[in-house]
Amino acid sequence: MLPDFSAMSQQALLDYIRLQCQQKGVGAISYPALKRQKGLYFALYNKGISQKHLTARLGMKEEYADFKARTFKRVMKDGTVRHRWSWDRVIKEVTPVVKSKGFLPPGQWFQANGMGSLVGSLYNLGKNWAELRDHFKSYKGSTFVQSRNGMRWRSHAEASLSNFLYARCIEHKRGEKYPAEYAAYGQAAYGYFDLHFRARDGRWIDVEIWGDKPKGHNEAGYKKKRIAKERFNKTNKRFLGLHYTDCYEDAHLITKLAPYIGRISPFVFDKPADKILQPTHWSNADELLDYCQQIAKEQPGGVFPTEGWLRKRGKWKTRKGPSYNTVSIYIKTWIGGIRQLRELLNQGRNSTTAWTKEKALAAYKAFFEKHGITPGQASTDSRDVDQDTLKEANNISAAIAKYVGSTRRVNKLAGILPERKKKWSEELLKQEVARLFAKYSLSMSQIARLRTADRRCFGVSREDANKARRVCGIIRDYVADPRALYESLGIKNVDIRTLKKYKRHLQHPIGGDPTA
By C-alpha distance, which of 395, 400, 391 is closest to 360? Predict the structure, then answer.
């Protein structure tokens, strides 16, 4: 005789069905078996226990899934018989696809190719795509983030926490499934912790990393899920909840994890950059370094560009190609700036110095002691120095102008009395003046004052115009009687306005010689 199910409590009903499973097997949980016992299914329904959630409440979900796969069949329209999905059947169906493609495609591929039921059934079996990837050892195209110890995680925050623990040799593992009792606390039949790590006393700590919303959508649904998990873990003394931003800073994790593992400095370093960067930044930095390496390969000389180039600012405002504002932000966040990035890319020689007044003065004095001339003299007399020295001189001169002031002031502060270096001898000066006059029939001052349109009219190159300006300055500073210099060379100034008309007449003849 059947008991009065309507008078039984929820726990009594669960105990009764558990006893039935022990006597008759897990099939006692099936819908037909429940319906055969008059009033049992209705009593369960009234107590808020559906057949779907009953297996979870009894901790027999996986056993029942295997039972259904073996027992229940489905007859298709063409007469073929299909068994329900099981883990073995999933493996069997996916294996030919992996062999033909050489890797496990994402779930979207199966849905687009008529195998959508496989994806849904996988999760109904309590499995996930990561476990399927692990089975086939196929990670191509995976969105999972790998931490330094080779473990793969569902988010950067989890990978950052894993790196923090790995650098301190703290045992940890991927999050495992919540106990079956969790189904009573929320809409989901099951859930997973994010990570577990071993505390000093040997306990495994259950970690949830809270986000603001999952991948930018369903914020309300995520809020309900978090509330359910927090309610379930209220009495769990081994539970630790972290906000995802905590996982990106060593200082935050040191404080949060101190009660469990103490305060330990990192000592496990696998790569040269590991000692420079925070362990919580390792995974993000690894991906960013690979991406920055690709950007550098596209630049002249393979040198990673400046922040101005990335953000299209200053002289790079009109450059072609995309802007890399986000990359610039991540370089500061994960790596510590472009200067440190270049060091990690073995391009430290191309980085600029972080100048201060003291560093600029020290560099100025060191340059003078090494070369016997000041950076300003090296820049002026560029013919006598190599390109590397000239570049160094220009960088120091720019720093001096920004952080110190005039050359006279810096020489006084550095205790330097430079000898005035005369670049031009009288003979060399005469040769240059004669060369430019013979080429253009103009004096140095006339060439120096030419506007762009007039320079084109006379065919004066930009290089010669700059040279004429420098020669004019030298004549003014070093030659006592400029007129005597010109007369010694047989040079007389020509009226430039008349000469300009003549030049234009030669280009567009409309009459006689304007100089006749």
Answer: 400
